[in-house]
Structure formats: C-alpha cells, structure tokens
Design brief:
This protein is mostly helical. Helices cover 52% and strands 9% of the residues. The strands form two sheets. Strands 1-4-5 form a three-stranded antiparallel β-sheet, sandwiched between helices. The protein has a three-stranded antiparallel β-sheet with strand order 2-3-6, with no helix packed on it. Helix 2 (15-29) runs antiparallel to helix 3, helix 5 (94-122) runs antiparallel to helix 6 (132-152) and helix 8 (224-235) crosses helix 10.
C-alpha cells in the first residue's frame, strides 16, 4: 500500500483534498479516540507519515518518481516473461480491393458504351438501332458496383458499456474526499423572532462512500454548480437556535447538509451496499462533512 492509498486519495489530488483526507482519517484513527487499540495507533502513524511526504511538494515529487520507477520495473519484468510473437501476414485491405474492382467495372462499362456510340454513328446507310442490351448491362453493372460497395462498407459496432455501472465495484482506489464549495458560503438566516443573522461556512468537503464512488464523484462534478445553489437555498431554512448551541451547532450543521445532499443527489447514506475493501457494508454517496475551519454565525 502506497501513501496515496493510505490517505485514500487520488495520486493527482490537490493540497486541499490531501489536507481534508488527513484530517478526516486522523479523526477516525487517532489514539486518543481509540484507546487500547494498537492497530488504530499503527494506522494513525502510517497516516501521519504519508501526510508528511504528500503535503510537501519536494518530497511528493520524489515519491511520485519512485512510484513510476517501480511501475516501470514491474512492467519490464512482465514483458521479459512473454515469448516473442511470430510475425503475422497483414491481410489485404478489403476496402481498397473493393475500390479497385469498382474502378475496373466503371472502366469496362465506359469502353462498352463508347464502342456502341461509335458503331451507331459510323455505320453507313443504317438507321440507328437501339441497344437495350447495352443499357441493361450498364445498369446492371452500376447496380452490382453499388451492391458490392454497400456489402463492403464497414458495419457499425455497438458501443461498449460505460466503465462504471451501478453496482459495479471501482477498478482502483479513488479519492474519497471531494471538495464541494470553492469559496466561503455566506447566507442569511432568521431566528424565532424574525431577526436577521449571517451564516458563513468555509470551504466545504464531503467524504464519499466507497461503493461505486467513481460514478458518484463524476455526477457531483458534472452538477456541482447546481448542487451548490440548491444547498445554499436549503441552508437558509436552517435553525438559528440549533446552530447557536455550543458544542452542538457543528453537529447540527453537518447533519443538515448531509440530509440536504441526500435529497438533492437522490442518495441515502444509511442504505447498505455490498462490502468493499474500505467499508463493510459499503455506502454510496456523501457520508460525512468536513469543515477545514469552524463556521461563523452573527
């Protein structure tokens, strides 16, 4: 397992995603939250080690170079084990052969028609005679050429299915933390007495369930602007009194956002899916909210 797999992120993840993934994993595996759990402590140490390398630009570049070199060595060893393939004779290009045959057919038809034309006009003292057999031959030759061309035309093949269908397990590990908002979200709220207040939410990240996560991430990225607009509209109906509760406001805000995302994306974070390598049972959609900085309420 490399450092990217330890942090559960994509190798091209941005610094914000790396930081959010590290914070989320440490909240889960920190020794203070898992007393007397040696496995959790060991995993937390691995997470800290991976974050120390990936969060530093120079160390990350060197580490990426090491991963590429290792991959090239594995590929070269596998290539050496494969026997050399015998040379195969390239089959003739059927389309080129068909074009040549059509050209010769048209040439033959032209010669026949020209010969008939000369016979009609150069024969002395004879009225012109119709030549239906030549017309039929020409028409039949043209139809034959068209039929041959149609038969030799390349047939359309059915498109392959998309790389990730519902219920299909991802082929590889993908980023499990997705940045939802690109700037601070500022909203207007009213309390029970209809007084106005301002809610400011910093950069917002969502943790994605491991079941078919690639498909969900693609759907969110494609509709991110619309999702943010709908989420902002729903947050204006959040309870000011619940947000103002000490030590409980952030929990209420996260639950409110998760419920809204379930409704907007048509998912259910409580529904159980077949287990994956990261979760048992697996979950689909947004399963947690990560706030890099506390929200403010005025």
């Amino acid at each position: 397992m490399n450092y990217y797999e330890t942090l559960e992120i994509h190798p091209k993840a941005s610094k914000e995603v790396v930081r959010a993934a590290y914070k989320s994993l440490m909240q889960r595996y920190h020794p203070d939250k898992n007393p007397d759990n040696a496995e959790a402590a060991r995993h937390a140490a691995l997470i800290a080690q991976a974050y120390g390398v990936i969060s530093d630009d120079n160390q990350r570049s060197l580490y990426d170079l090491q991963l590429r070199e290792q991959a090239e060595k594995v590929y070269s060893r596998r290539s050496e084990n494969y026997p050399a393939q015998p040379l195969r004779r390239t089959p003739p290009n059927r389309q080129a052969v068909a074009k040549n045959n059509a050209w010769y057919a048209w040439l033959l038809i032209s010669v026949i028609l020209l010969s008939g034309f000369l016979i009609l006009f150069l024969a002395p003292k004879k009225p012109p005679q119709p030549l239906p057999h030549l017309d039929a031959q020409a028409e039949g030759g043209a139809q034959a050429v068209k039929q041959n061309s149609a038969n030799l035309a390349p047939q359309s093949l059915p498109l392959p299915p998309p790389p990730s269908e519902p219920g299909q397990r991802p082929a590889g590990l993908v980023a499990k933390t997705l940045q939802l908002s690109s700037s601070v979200m500022t909203l207007s709220l009213k309390d029970e007495n209809q007084r106005d207040h301002v809610l400011s939410i910093p950069l917002l990240f969502i943790k994605v369930g491991s079941y078919d996560s690639e498909k969900f991430i693609r759907d969110v990225e494609r509709r991110k602007d619309a999702i943010n607009r709908q989420l902002a509209d729903r947050l204006t109906y959040a309870s000011y009194e619940e947000l103002a509760r000490k030590d409980e406001g952030e929990k209420y805000l996260k639950k409110f956002i998760l419920d809204a995302l379930d409704s907007i994306t048509g998912t259910n974070r409580f529904e159980e899916y077949p287990p994956t390598g990261l979760e048992s049972p697996g979950r689909y959609g947004a399963v947690d909210i990560i706030l890099l900085e506390p929200f403010s309420l005025k």
